[in-house]
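Q: Structure tokens for this one, please.
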Amino acid sequence: MEKLSLLEIVNKNLPEIKGPAQKRLPFNEKLKWTLIVLVAFFILSVLPLYGMGKNNLEHFEMLSLLLGASFGSVLSLGIGPIVTGSIVLQLLKGAGILKLDTHTPEGRQKYEGLQKLLSLFFIVFEALIYILMGGLAPASTLSIGQYRFYQFLLVLQLIIGGIVVLYLDQIISKWGFGSGISLFIAANVSAQIFIGAFSPFAVGATGATFGSIFSSSGLAPTGKVWVLIGSLINPNSKEAILALSAIVATIIVFLMSVYAQAMKVEIPLSFGRVRGHGVRWPLRFMYTSNIPVILTAALMANVQLMANLLQKSLTASTGFLVFLSKHVLGQFSGSTPQSGLVYWLSAPDILRAIIQQGGITGNMILQVIIFTLFMMIGAVVFSLFWVQTSGMDAQSQASNILSSGLQIPGFRRDERVVEHLLSRYILPLTIMGALTVGFLASAADLMGALSRGTGILLTVMIIYNLYESIAKEHMMDMYPALRKMMGK
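A: Here is the predicted structure, written as tokens:
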């Protein structure tokens, strides 16, 4: 009898969402499961954690957007553990420490199993970090015994929420449209954009109340559309310019990302058995789409979170962790980064500084340069890793082309020939597309768009890809002959 490895034994006994029995799900079935998962995600994101007293993470808006999380709810972890596990796995494979051939079914199965195990590990690890380091804490008035008991309850709820997100992601991947990770980010950011533009509430000392745009003495709504209207009714030029710039920046980011997403290189292919008929195989300029930016931004968000939790939990004045907190990761003043990595890897609000202060400092310019370079270089590194681990490399694409019954006109039907031709496009597109998306993401953050610019850019790209996927599925349902021709 064949001896199973520990990894295979664990994966075999882990619960798993089974894929559909049929080769291809109907359009309506995929749409149904996508909507069900989205509704479940929004419902769980507003369920508060039982026993929580203080939420020290509520000011980390960018972190919550990128992680698809709602701090203080059951889904406080969001997609953080899944993305972190993916980062670690890609780094191990890219460094040659983990030797897996992802071009084979067995290698891909082991890779996916490792990814699930790492995600489960980081669900438990991050749940413990959030609670034990004071990010989410029970009421401080409790006795020591009660405090520890409620800490345990909070950790348990976070672990359950993290596992639910992991399996919701699997449902989307196997039964819905696109990726659950991308969909959760898009849903979270879209909600934040709508709230940021149209929220009628004003936040005062007594809490949130309905604001008024007609009274200059009362509290104005926080929605930028209402702020703009109120600033025009009760003349306030600076507030009007700031509100208008946020709305315009959002529109600019939207248009730029749609334009860049639509750019592609099309390779003409012909059907080997059907003369005179051919198709074009598209290679997008942004070849790896939004995945590198998600991974880069998630890495930055994890650094910010760790710095904040260390700062709140350390009481000693000396030691390695204190040195790490003060001089390496950096410190916060409220929710504003003040030093270390968290300062240099955060985007300054340039437009507000120019409008309200009349200019920007040299330190702010250096911060802009470092932030932009990190986003661009990080996107390239993760993009190269992603191509090799997700079956987007030239060899895998050449195999897909030939298995679909297609070939390049004028070349013999040989996988090595197709791979050589594709490699001339894929590597340059991977690098240039990653540099572009990294620059767009950093520029969007620096422009101070509604919500966070990076989140808006990601959402536009996610929705664009989702639209294309839905349109393709709908076309296949409308024209069954086309589906047979494409081998779907």
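A few notes: The mean pLDDT is 78. Residues 70 and 385 are 29 Å apart (CA to CA).
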